[in-house]
Amino acid sequence: xxxxxxxxxxxxxxxxxxxxxxxxxxxxxxxxxxxxxxxxxxxxxxxxxxxxxxxxxxxxxxxxxxxxxxxxxxxxxxxxxxxxxxxxxxxxxxxxxxxxxxxxxxxxxxxxxxxxxxxxxxxxxxxxxxxxxxxxxxxxxxxxxxxxxxxxxxxxxxxxxxxxxxxxxxxxxxxxxxxxxxxxxxxxxxxxxxxxxxxxxxxxxxxxxxxxxxxxxxxxxxxxxxxxxxxxxxxxxxxxxxxxxxxxxxxxxxxxxxxxxxxxxxxxxxxxxxxxxxxxxxxxxxxxxxxxxxxxxxxxxxxxxxxxxxxxxxxxxxxxxxxxxxxxxxxxxxxxxxxxxxxxxxxxxxxxxxxxxxxxxxxxxxxxxxxxxxxxxxxxxxxxxxxxxxxxxxxxxxxxxxxxxxxxxxxxxxxxxxxxxxxxxxxxxxxxxxxxxxxxxxxxxxxxxxxxxxxxxxxxxxxxxxxxxxxxxxxxxxxxxxxxxxxxxxxxxxxxxxxxxxxxxxxxxxxxxxxxxxxxxxxxxxxxxxxxxxxxxxxxxxxxxxxxxxxxxxxxxxxxxxxxxxxxxxxxxxxxxxxxxxxxxxxxxxxxxxxxxxxxxxxxxxxxxxxxxxxxxxxxxxx
Length: 623
Description:
The protein is an alpha+beta fold and 623 residues long. It is built from 18 helices and 28 strands. Helix 7 packs parallel to helix 10.
């Protein structure tokens, strides 16, 4: 049998063999509809590329104090859960390396992983807690170990398949299994610092990833145990999601958005292996309920008021409806937005649902870029829609003179995911999800690839040209995402009109030849967005503006009357804006907007620089 398998493998291209083993499809009952391209198969130019490179150069290769973060595993944490910091920094670095193949970044990652391996304790754990104190609930021990495993998994899959790293992951997981479980072991829901201990159960994701790498039954058994515990002390998050409980009511007084989605990422991995439809329903119910109840105009969610002031803007809080509430002081944690991107990408791969990309794009171009410091050397902890947009303060501390928080460590991971989802593959052929300028190489059969070159200034305009260049002519289906907001779309292949329905993929099946051209014109008319109806009825008297995926805002840096009431002049829900030269060099887009008082000047939300205290007005008060 082994000889027959090797003969078959010999007929498959090397890159497909790597993908096969990394996905470990032999263990999966459920196959993904879409799959990411191999490392280094896509390259952005313009727009997002500058942001990715700024983060790589000025954060991951710039100020991250890797050695000092490793030292916490030798000397102990200075405050709870501090050991997560190394894992988050390395995880995003590995995803950036997957995209960039930057040799200097690889040297940094190789060195810090080797350094971390020297901290492994006698019982196999890599932990900031001494063996006698393990498992350490209040200290955040399991949460820290989770992030070590996530980072090592990313390193092993995307940087170096070092057998020492795989062995260390197995040692760490085996140590956890020896400590955690049904009595007489310590129950996982009894460990953690939060009121319901949800953070510890997010170990499900790296445990499932390790099962996919090894096929060891004990890891699947442990994952089943975590699922049976329900995710939190006194609450069954999985059953609540299955029963369509609104996100803000899952988990009692602590519906922590970031950790909840992290748990459900692990549930997607669990569903792939087990095929348990109950789990799939729970995941998809939570996804749709987050969209309906929590996601704001800039693509993120969570807030402090009116329901969960003690959770500091990091809890689900009916934010989609409450986003114009002027009492909100903290909302939309960057960790929430980045984990939302990751959960959406999991569901995208699993189901092929284009709404997931609408969600990713909305957050990427607005909330994510809007949270990043101009030079890429950090991210805001939370974002406001009206007021001072950015806020450095949150969980974290000074490490080697660098102020490190969970959010300025997580922000780069969101950026690194954008090329990961931009263009994908499927059994039928390539899938174009995001329309940033760039090019990609996609394997369309065992024998050949196709190059896709995207020429555009999107999202500055909706004019997009895709040049399709297979090595030889071949028939396959190319999917083009038609955003839900694009109500009038023009799609042509070699000048011939094609059908394009908002909120779907246009599936173009034909025999493709080098030189074929796809023209896509998306509807970038500036549209009025009506205020939601939350608990604060005064919030009803607001309107916002959006163009394609971009949300516009008034910027105090260029407009002293940025928050004064106006009446926007519109017709049938659309506003005739004029493009302007930016007043501030760092502004990506600026527009003149007609009002009853003459033109006001608005920019894309992401460009507003609030780092020195200037304010933004996204929901415009109306006269």
